[in-house]
Specification:
The protein has helices spanning about 15-25, 75-90, 100-110; strands at about 1-5, 35-40, 45-50, 60-65, 90-95. It is α/β, with parallel strands linked by helices. The longest helix has 16 residues, at about 75-90. The radius of gyration is 25 Å and the shape is elongated.
């Protein structure tokens, strides 16, 4: 399931966002079909559910926050309340597209682990190289014939 947040969130929007999450999780949304809603500010926000049984993502709602370019305390409060609502409904929220400022704000208020980020899928695997080691020096221990074995 995908929940897209608008670019600006006011505290008055939070109950509406939580209700939208409740409806989305409880409803039987037709698979692979986008449904458009209007938020209180009049911006279109999409809700999408796709894939049979949702596979490994069962129990997770992906919250697209890429439109939040200037997050503030209201946005952080909204994400915390959305996570609380999701947990009460038996699922959890993961953030997609979080800007560095939002990540910093979440970490600052101690919510970095409570509202986790969706791992970035770049589609490019990093190159791996063998570890370079310095050659060992030629250390030779001399053993005296009179030394007892260790």
């Amino acid at each position: 399931m995908l929940l897209c947040l608008p670019g600006r969130i006011d505290r008055a929007d939070i109950p509406h966002l939580c209700e939208r999450l409740r409806v989305m999780v409880r409803a039987e949304v037709p698979r692979a079909r986008d449904i458009e809603h209007l938020d209180p500010c009049g911006a279109a926000v999409g809700v999408q559910q796709s894939g049979p049984e949702r596979g490994a993502d069962a129990g997770w709602v992906v919250c697209d926050v890429s439109a939040l370019t200037q997050p503030d305390a209201a946005a952080v409060e909204a994400l915390a309340r959305l996570q609380l609502t999701a947990r009460r409904l038996g699922c959890r929220i993961r953030l997609r597209g979080a800007c560095p400022r939002l990540q910093d704000l979440l970490a600052l208020v101690g919510l970095g682990d409570v509202v986790p980020l969706l791992p970035a899928a770049s589609g490019v695997e990093p190159e791996r190289q063998a570890e370079q080691r310095e050659p060992t020096g030629d250390v030779q221990e001399g053993v005296e014939p009179d030394d007892p074995p260790a």
